[in-house]
Amino acid sequence: MRTQIRKIGNSLGNIIPAGIIRQLNLEEGAEIEVQTEGNRIIIEPVMKKTRKRLKFSEQELLNGMNPYLAHADELANITAAELGE
Question: Cβ-count burial of 26 within 10 angstroms (0-12 exposed, 13-18 middle, 19+ buried)?
Answer without folding.
Answer: middle
